[in-house]
Write a structure and sequence with these properties.
7 helices; 243 residues; alpha/beta; Spore Coat Polysaccharide Biosynthesis Protein SpsA, Chain A
Length: 243
Protein backbone atom coordinates (compact mmCIF):
# COMPACT_ATOMS: atom_id res chain seq x y z
CA UNK A 1 0.00 0.00 0.00
CA UNK A 2 3.03 2.26 0.18
CA UNK A 3 3.18 2.72 -3.56
CA UNK A 4 1.13 2.11 -6.66
CA UNK A 5 2.39 -0.83 -8.68
CA UNK A 6 0.87 -2.05 -11.92
CA UNK A 7 -0.13 -5.66 -11.33
CA UNK A 8 -0.46 -7.93 -14.32
CA UNK A 9 -1.53 -11.29 -12.91
CA UNK A 10 -3.86 -12.63 -10.25
CA UNK A 11 -0.92 -14.03 -8.31
CA UNK A 12 0.69 -10.58 -8.21
CA UNK A 13 -2.58 -9.07 -7.03
CA UNK A 14 -2.87 -11.58 -4.21
CA UNK A 15 0.81 -11.88 -3.28
CA UNK A 16 0.88 -8.99 -0.83
CA UNK A 17 -2.67 -8.49 0.37
CA UNK A 18 -4.44 -9.49 3.56
CA UNK A 19 -7.08 -12.12 2.85
CA UNK A 20 -10.02 -12.55 5.19
CA UNK A 21 -13.07 -14.74 4.65
CA UNK A 22 -16.23 -14.36 6.70
CA UNK A 23 -17.19 -17.80 7.99
CA UNK A 24 -19.34 -19.16 10.81
CA UNK A 25 -17.60 -22.17 12.38
CA UNK A 26 -20.97 -23.85 12.72
CA UNK A 27 -21.44 -23.76 8.93
CA UNK A 28 -19.31 -26.82 8.28
CA UNK A 29 -21.46 -27.47 5.22
CA UNK A 30 -19.71 -24.54 3.53
CA UNK A 31 -16.17 -25.79 4.06
CA UNK A 32 -16.04 -27.50 0.64
CA UNK A 33 -16.94 -24.14 -0.96
CA UNK A 34 -14.35 -22.40 1.19
CA UNK A 35 -11.57 -24.75 0.11
CA UNK A 36 -12.65 -24.59 -3.52
CA UNK A 37 -12.56 -20.79 -3.47
CA UNK A 38 -9.03 -20.69 -2.13
CA UNK A 39 -7.90 -23.42 -4.52
CA UNK A 40 -9.30 -21.49 -7.48
CA UNK A 41 -7.46 -18.36 -6.39
CA UNK A 42 -4.24 -20.30 -5.83
CA UNK A 43 -4.20 -19.45 -2.10
CA UNK A 44 -3.11 -22.08 0.40
CA UNK A 45 -6.01 -22.73 2.76
CA UNK A 46 -5.46 -21.87 6.41
CA UNK A 47 -7.77 -21.31 9.37
CA UNK A 48 -6.00 -17.97 9.87
CA UNK A 49 -7.74 -16.70 6.71
CA UNK A 50 -11.19 -17.17 8.26
CA UNK A 51 -12.91 -14.69 10.57
CA UNK A 52 -15.93 -15.45 12.73
CA UNK A 53 -18.63 -12.75 12.60
CA UNK A 54 -19.10 -10.60 15.69
CA UNK A 55 -21.54 -12.22 18.15
CA UNK A 56 -24.93 -10.56 17.63
CA UNK A 57 -25.89 -11.14 21.27
CA UNK A 58 -23.24 -8.63 22.29
CA UNK A 59 -24.52 -5.85 20.04
CA UNK A 60 -26.68 -2.88 20.98
CA UNK A 61 -28.55 -1.43 18.03
CA UNK A 62 -30.84 1.22 19.55
CA UNK A 63 -28.97 4.14 17.95
CA UNK A 64 -29.02 2.53 14.49
CA UNK A 65 -32.66 3.28 13.77
CA UNK A 66 -33.82 1.04 10.93
CA UNK A 67 -31.09 -1.46 11.80
CA UNK A 68 -32.38 -1.96 15.34
CA UNK A 69 -33.91 -5.30 14.41
CA UNK A 70 -31.11 -6.29 12.05
CA UNK A 71 -28.33 -7.31 14.39
CA UNK A 72 -26.84 -9.69 11.79
CA UNK A 73 -26.39 -6.71 9.46
CA UNK A 74 -24.55 -4.75 12.15
CA UNK A 75 -22.51 -7.83 13.01
CA UNK A 76 -21.36 -8.05 9.41
CA UNK A 77 -20.46 -4.35 9.35
CA UNK A 78 -18.38 -4.63 12.51
CA UNK A 79 -16.68 -7.79 11.24
CA UNK A 80 -15.71 -6.05 8.00
CA UNK A 81 -14.38 -3.14 10.05
CA UNK A 82 -12.18 -5.55 12.02
CA UNK A 83 -10.80 -6.94 8.74
CA UNK A 84 -10.08 -3.40 7.56
CA UNK A 85 -8.27 -2.56 10.80
CA UNK A 86 -6.16 -5.70 10.44
CA UNK A 87 -5.20 -4.69 6.90
CA UNK A 88 -4.28 -1.20 8.07
CA UNK A 89 -2.08 -2.64 10.83
CA UNK A 90 -0.39 -4.97 8.33
CA UNK A 91 -0.07 -2.09 5.82
CA UNK A 92 -1.58 -4.24 3.10
CA UNK A 93 -4.56 -4.12 0.73
CA UNK A 94 -7.58 -6.15 1.80
CA UNK A 95 -9.31 -8.95 -0.06
CA UNK A 96 -12.60 -9.56 1.74
CA UNK A 97 -14.47 -12.77 0.94
CA UNK A 98 -17.67 -14.43 2.07
CA UNK A 99 -17.74 -18.18 2.51
CA UNK A 100 -20.36 -18.84 -0.16
CA UNK A 101 -18.31 -17.25 -2.94
CA UNK A 102 -17.70 -19.19 -6.15
CA UNK A 103 -15.02 -17.99 -8.56
CA UNK A 104 -14.84 -18.48 -12.29
CA UNK A 105 -12.70 -21.60 -12.83
CA UNK A 106 -10.44 -19.68 -15.25
CA UNK A 107 -10.17 -16.57 -13.11
CA UNK A 108 -6.36 -16.49 -13.28
CA UNK A 109 -6.51 -16.32 -17.07
CA UNK A 110 -9.32 -13.76 -17.18
CA UNK A 111 -7.77 -11.47 -14.57
CA UNK A 112 -4.82 -10.77 -16.87
CA UNK A 113 -7.13 -8.90 -19.24
CA UNK A 114 -8.95 -7.25 -16.34
CA UNK A 115 -5.74 -5.98 -14.72
CA UNK A 116 -4.51 -4.72 -18.08
CA UNK A 117 -7.60 -2.50 -18.35
CA UNK A 118 -7.79 -1.27 -14.78
CA UNK A 119 -6.39 2.26 -14.40
CA UNK A 120 -3.04 2.37 -12.59
CA UNK A 121 -4.56 4.30 -9.69
CA UNK A 122 -7.60 2.08 -9.07
CA UNK A 123 -8.52 1.71 -5.41
CA UNK A 124 -11.44 -0.71 -5.23
CA UNK A 125 -12.38 -3.74 -7.32
CA UNK A 126 -15.39 -6.06 -7.19
CA UNK A 127 -14.79 -9.57 -8.56
CA UNK A 128 -18.54 -10.02 -8.43
CA UNK A 129 -21.33 -7.51 -7.92
CA UNK A 130 -24.93 -6.54 -8.36
CA UNK A 131 -26.35 -3.03 -8.52
CA UNK A 132 -29.33 -1.50 -6.81
CA UNK A 133 -30.96 1.91 -6.65
CA UNK A 134 -30.29 4.69 -4.19
CA UNK A 135 -33.27 6.30 -2.52
CA UNK A 136 -34.44 9.56 -4.16
CA UNK A 137 -32.70 11.75 -1.58
CA UNK A 138 -29.34 10.08 -2.29
CA UNK A 139 -29.72 9.75 -6.06
CA UNK A 140 -28.24 13.25 -6.74
CA UNK A 141 -24.92 11.95 -5.43
CA UNK A 142 -24.69 9.69 -8.46
CA UNK A 143 -25.55 12.53 -10.82
CA UNK A 144 -22.79 14.70 -9.34
CA UNK A 145 -20.09 12.18 -10.12
CA UNK A 146 -17.89 12.72 -13.13
CA UNK A 147 -19.30 11.01 -16.21
CA UNK A 148 -17.22 8.02 -17.19
CA UNK A 149 -16.82 8.09 -20.97
CA UNK A 150 -14.21 5.34 -21.20
CA UNK A 151 -15.50 2.09 -22.66
CA UNK A 152 -14.00 -1.12 -21.30
CA UNK A 153 -14.19 -4.69 -22.52
CA UNK A 154 -13.46 -6.69 -19.33
CA UNK A 155 -14.35 -4.26 -16.56
CA UNK A 156 -17.10 -1.78 -15.77
CA UNK A 157 -17.21 1.38 -13.72
CA UNK A 158 -19.96 0.64 -11.25
CA UNK A 159 -22.79 2.95 -10.31
CA UNK A 160 -23.97 1.69 -6.90
CA UNK A 161 -22.68 -1.85 -6.37
CA UNK A 162 -23.86 -4.18 -3.66
CA UNK A 163 -22.60 -7.64 -2.63
CA UNK A 164 -19.22 -8.00 -0.94
CA UNK A 165 -18.58 -11.68 -1.51
CA UNK A 166 -15.27 -10.83 -3.24
CA UNK A 167 -14.11 -7.24 -2.69
CA UNK A 168 -10.55 -5.91 -3.01
CA UNK A 169 -9.60 -2.55 -1.46
CA UNK A 170 -6.06 -1.27 -1.83
CA UNK A 171 -6.41 2.29 -0.51
CA UNK A 172 -5.15 2.67 3.08
CA UNK A 173 -7.05 5.91 3.64
CA UNK A 174 -10.22 4.24 2.35
CA UNK A 175 -9.79 1.34 4.76
CA UNK A 176 -9.15 3.70 7.65
CA UNK A 177 -12.21 5.82 6.94
CA UNK A 178 -14.44 2.91 5.94
CA UNK A 179 -13.81 1.02 9.19
CA UNK A 180 -15.44 3.93 11.01
CA UNK A 181 -18.00 4.84 8.32
CA UNK A 182 -19.67 1.43 8.08
CA UNK A 183 -20.08 1.15 11.85
CA UNK A 184 -21.33 4.71 12.43
CA UNK A 185 -25.06 5.00 13.30
CA UNK A 186 -25.33 8.15 11.15
CA UNK A 187 -24.49 6.13 8.02
CA UNK A 188 -27.62 4.02 8.42
CA UNK A 189 -29.86 7.06 8.71
CA UNK A 190 -29.02 8.08 5.14
CA UNK A 191 -31.72 7.23 2.62
CA UNK A 192 -32.13 3.52 2.05
CA UNK A 193 -28.75 2.48 3.46
CA UNK A 194 -29.61 -0.61 5.49
CA UNK A 195 -26.65 -2.95 4.93
CA UNK A 196 -22.88 -2.74 5.13
CA UNK A 197 -22.34 -3.40 1.41
CA UNK A 198 -24.55 -0.40 0.63
CA UNK A 199 -22.66 1.68 3.19
CA UNK A 200 -19.33 0.78 1.56
CA UNK A 201 -20.59 1.80 -1.87
CA UNK A 202 -22.01 5.06 -0.50
CA UNK A 203 -18.65 5.93 1.05
CA UNK A 204 -16.93 5.58 -2.33
CA UNK A 205 -19.67 7.64 -3.99
CA UNK A 206 -19.47 10.43 -1.42
CA UNK A 207 -15.68 10.58 -1.85
CA UNK A 208 -15.84 10.37 -5.66
CA UNK A 209 -13.75 7.21 -5.74
CA UNK A 210 -14.38 5.11 -8.88
CA UNK A 211 -15.59 1.58 -8.24
CA UNK A 212 -14.62 -1.01 -10.82
CA UNK A 213 -15.98 -4.51 -11.28
CA UNK A 214 -15.27 -7.46 -13.52
CA UNK A 215 -17.61 -7.52 -16.51
CA UNK A 216 -18.86 -10.21 -16.83
CA UNK A 217 -18.52 -11.03 -13.15
CA UNK A 218 -15.79 -13.45 -12.06
CA UNK A 219 -17.30 -14.30 -8.68
CA UNK A 220 -20.79 -15.14 -7.53
CA UNK A 221 -22.65 -16.31 -4.46
CA UNK A 222 -23.39 -20.02 -4.57
CA UNK A 223 -27.10 -20.54 -5.19
CA UNK A 224 -27.56 -16.79 -4.94
CA UNK A 225 -28.88 -14.13 -7.28
CA UNK A 226 -25.60 -12.39 -8.04
CA UNK A 227 -24.56 -15.07 -10.52
CA UNK A 228 -27.40 -14.14 -12.84
CA UNK A 229 -28.00 -10.45 -12.18
CA UNK A 230 -26.05 -9.26 -15.22
CA UNK A 231 -28.05 -11.44 -17.57
CA UNK A 232 -31.36 -10.20 -16.23
CA UNK A 233 -32.32 -13.79 -15.47
CA UNK A 234 -34.57 -14.12 -12.44
CA UNK A 235 -35.84 -17.67 -12.53
CA UNK A 236 -33.36 -19.80 -14.45
CA UNK A 237 -30.05 -20.62 -12.65
CA UNK A 238 -26.93 -19.62 -14.51
CA UNK A 239 -23.61 -21.21 -13.68
CA UNK A 240 -20.70 -18.84 -13.51
CA UNK A 241 -18.77 -21.03 -15.95
CA UNK A 242 -21.23 -19.84 -18.62
CA UNK A 243 -20.31 -16.18 -18.22
Amino acid sequence: MKGVTKMRTLSELLSNCLVRMLHFKRRTDRLPLVREAFDTLGIEYSLDLLIEPVDVSKLTTDEYGLMAEKKPTLSLAKTKAICMEQAIKADKPLLFLEDDVVFHPRIAEKMEAVLAELPDDWRVFYFGWGETRLSPDLEPLIQQRQVDVVKFSTIRRLRFPVLNHALYIRCKQCLTELSQYITAPATYHKGNISASDMAIALYFIENNIPMYGANPILAAQANGWSDRVQKGIRHRPLKIEQL
